[in-house]
Design a protein that fits this description.
Helix content: over 70%
Structural class: mainly alpha
Number of strands: 2
Largest sheet: 2 strands, antiparallel
Number of helices: 32
Distance between the termini: 110 Å
Radius of gyration: 29 Å
Oligomer: single chain
Strand content: under 5%
Shape: elongated
């Protein structure tokens, strides 16, 4: 006699059904909203340390030295790549942040945390809608909100793109679920519009059309012609944005498929897949940087083939579970679809994986976690299972909350971040490079030189390590050593505009004016938006007495970035020397508004007031410049104010 197949919904006892209805009920909105508020409050509490954090890593590219955010130039924002990415919505939000906060780091972190809270709320609504169960939605949202693997996406300002694409991704998914229920095309249109916004925030959104097909299957829609026709616009947009993303990566030379053999890529895709799952369940040894375990041409150790076997075993178990329920298949498939593009089958960057890549994909695994706890608690009459479910829930929530709170502290600044990375793997050349840059910015030149030398030792082919060590030597006035490192950086990467700028600065210090100008022009040719090139060229031309050409260089900087402090002060000084005092006053006032703690702007404005014979205001500005440590201000104050 054949055994009939049954689903959990047909095998529950009547008491279990009753319990399920009671706990999954949404008839008490106060309970639901109270629990949601508690989840959001706990999520906010574990991210409190992030509000004290500064800018780290690529924040200099996306915020501090990004001319695209200084003005709301929409055509330029929507027609530009940035750091190998096309995400104009993210750039636009950064521009709005800059208009609101300037370079005040806390404002950016507050925005990131608020969007993460919104995403946590959306995870609840999406999963509740998918599962038709209040508590499944609540548990999934809670784990999503507090999981330490998400700290990189939330506590790192540059990962606003992760948060924004997820926000629109979930809104699109929620609108699609409404469309499935009501068959009203306003919801279909909203789903498509939110998908486009998601893809304009980050290219990883292109997996959404496949997720929609998975949702159709999970909710029991027949995958007929009508359903596939509905998906055509989604797949068209996904294809277009996928092509744009590839071109964006190529613009930054971030794709390096030829450098890693195809078999290595396949093996490490399996390695990444299983490691993501492991870290979602037990998030230990988290790092900002996960290097490839072996060199590009090295033989793959046998241990890594075990990840292939583990993946195949998971596939078999998932397929077998499908005889009893769609839930396991849905959770694993959701994870697989949304993580697939970052398994490095097409290598981008120099890491084998990254915590931030799991931000959306984790929802599938957290959903399964919630279903598992619910199954233990609801579908087993024995009270010991309820105790096990409660203990597991409390244990994981406590561990995740504590780990997230502590992990936020790691992202406080580049010193804490890269020291943590080195402590976990002392062979990561990028960690030494980035910590060396932090020491360089902090004027700790011996520590910077040591870290950059270690970075070069670990990878003697990486141009930016030589370039930054050249900066150290330049500040130490070791000009020959600086030129040697800049030359090596340019040899390794002829398109590194910053190396030309600072080699030009070194030539200027050596009074080799022609070579300095040639390097500034080369930097401008490589990157016409490179502000420092124009500014430094202007200074050099000014010192040569070519004031009109210098003025044109400063003005070019300020056309690209109207708040670029050094160009405002330099052009203000030029206007002051030519007695264009009104124009000089405008530049100095704007410079002071941009940076009220820089003595040079007060000193320059004081000179303008002095030329206008407004001695009281001139002396007030000289006093302010003295208090801010500007060197020339004291002698000028003594001359005119005593």
């Amino acid at each position: 006699m054949s055994k009939s197949k049954s689903t959990p919904s047909t095998t529950k006892s009547s008491s279990a059904k009753k319990s399920s209805r009671q706990i999954g009920s949404e008839t008490n909105p106060l309970l639901q909203y109270g629990l949601l508020a508690g989840i959001l409050l706990l999520t906010l509490l574990v991210y409190l340390p992030a509000f004290q954090n500064g800018f780290v890593w690529d924040d200099s590219v996306y915020i501090q030295r990004n001319p695209l955010i200084y003005t709301l130039d929409l055509p330029k924002i929507f027609s530009s790549y940035l750091a190998g990415n096309y995400h104009p919505i993210t750039v636009l939000v950064h521009a709005l942040e800059y208009a609101s906060f300037g370079f005040k780091e806390s404002g950016y972190h507050i925005v990131n945390v608020l969007i993460h809270l919104a995403n946590t709320l959306l995870v609840f609504y999406v999963i509740r809608k998918l599962s038709n169960h209040l508590w499944i939605g609540l548990i999934t949202a809670l784990i999503f909100g507090i999981h330490p693997l998400h700290v990189e996406s939330v506590a790192w300002v540059s990962e606003l793109k992760d948060l924004l694409y997820t926000l629109f991704f979930l809104l699109s998914l929620l609108a699609y679920l409404r469309f499935m229920d009501q068959q009203k095309y306003k919801w279909y249109g909203m789903a498509l519009a939110f998908f486009v916004l998601s893809a304009l925030s980050k290219g990883m959104a292109v997996t959404l059309p496949v997720v929609l097909v998975l949702v159709d299957y999970f909710k029991g829609r027949p995958l007929n012609q009508k359903v596939w026709i509905e998906k055509i616009p989604f797949f068209i947009f996904a294809f277009v944005f996928g092509i744009v993303a590839i071109y964006a990566q190529q613009s930054e030379a971030a794709l390096h498929a030829d450098s890693i053999p195809i078999m290595q890529r396949i093996i490490f895709a399996f390695y990444g897949y299983i490691t993501y799952l492991h870290k979602l369940i037990l998030p230990v040894s988290l790092s900002a940087y996960y290097p490839y375990p072996i060199g590009a041409r090295d033989a793959v150790p046998a241990i890594y083939y075990s990840y292939v076997l583990l993946t195949l075993a998971l596939v078999v178990l998932t397929w077998k579970s499908h005889k009893h329920t769609k839930k396991v298949f849905f959770g694993i498939a959701f994870f697989t679809i949304t993580i697939f593009l970052v398994l490095k089958l097409l290598p981008v960057g120099y890491t084998v994986m990254a915590d931030r890549y799991s931000y959306v994909a984790s929802i599938g695994i957290f959903y399964l976690f919630a279903e598992g706890l619910s199954w233990l608690y609801l579908y087993k009459a024995n009270s010991s299972y309820k105790i096990i479910a409660s203990a597991l829930g409390i244990g994981f929530i406590s561990f995740y909350s504590y780990a997230t709170y502590q992990r936020c502290k790691v992202w406080e600044n580049s010193l804490t971040l890269w020291t943590d990375t080195i402590d976990k793997n002392d062979n990561v050349h990028m960690a030494y490079l980035n910590r060396g840059v932090y020491h360089l910015d902090s004027k700790n030149l011996p520590a910077a030189e040591a870290d950059l030398a270690r970075s070069i030792e670990l990878d003697p082919t990486y141009a930016k390590s030589y370039y930054n060590r050249g900066l150290v030597y330049q500040q130490q006035r070791k000009f020959d050593a600086a030129l040697q490192d800049y030359n090596k950086a340019i040899e390794l990467n002829p398109n590194l505009a910053n190396a030309y700028i600072n080699r030009g600065n070194t030539y200027k210090d050596l009074n080799n004016i022609e070579l300095a100008l040639a390097d500034y022009d080369r930097a401008i040719a490589l990157d016409p938006t490179m502000l420092e090139s124009y500014n430094n060229k202007g200074l050099l031309l000014q010192n040569m007495g070519n004031l009109q050409a210098a003025l044109e260089s400063y003005t070019k900087v300020l056309q690209l970035s109207p708040t670029y402090f050094n160009a405002l002060v330099n052009r203000g000084g030029l206007y002051s020397k030519s007695n264009q005092l009104d124009l000089a006053m405008q530049d100095y006032n704007k410079a002071i508004a941009v940076n009220p703690n820089a003595g040079s702007a007060y000193y320059g404005r004081g000179l303008v007031y002095n030329k206008r014979s407004d001695t009281s205001k001139a002396c007030a500005d000289f006093r302010q410049a003295i208090s801010l440590g500007y060197q020339n201000a004291q002698s000028t104050f003594n001359q005119f104010c005593q």
